[in-house]
Write a structure and sequence with these properties.
The strands form three sheets. Strands 6-7-9-8 form a four-stranded mixed β-sheet. Strands 1-3-2 form a three-stranded antiparallel β-sheet. With 202 residues, the chain is α+β, with helices and mostly antiparallel strands.
Amino acid sequence: MKRPEIENKIAAIIRKLPEGSILFVEDFLDYGNRENIKKALLRLKEKGIIIRIAFGIYLYPKIDNELGILYPSVEEIAQAIARRDKARIIPTGVQALNKLGLSTQVPLKAVFLTDGAARVVKIGKRTITFKKASPKNLLVKGEISGLVIQALKSIGKNKIENDLLTKVKSILKKETKENIIHDAKLAPAWINKILMETVREK
């Protein structure tokens, strides 16, 4: 397939995607070699069909009449990278607290544990850091209990206040008992105790 054909083919595929889709070179390798795909995406960027949001990461933009381009969240970009890499990820620190609704702070530096490659991705002023983790950290079954473990780790054993503990236990009620019991075994002893207290209170 010649270069203009590759570009036209990719443009046609992109236009059928939902607006707001995150795109990678790897999505189009059926239509040419990596170098030609890179060049085709660059030309489509120059034509305004897609936007480059980071090195090797593009966006088929969704545009709001008042707000302009609606950019994906750090979480959405991280999940898209994980899907591309066939890797598992878990938000940590402020990212985990924010996702649980325990913090309104939107971190400029989001950190995720992964069983994929360790890397840092820059998105404008924000960064996404993927930290290589031991398999044990990624064996959690429950999304909520997994987030709670990471959120509590980031706060620290001696800094947990009673009102926060009450909120955490309330959030954990949305998780299944089976998942909490499974994930508690993977957590540090002091977090295991909090999780198992929640199970007994259910």
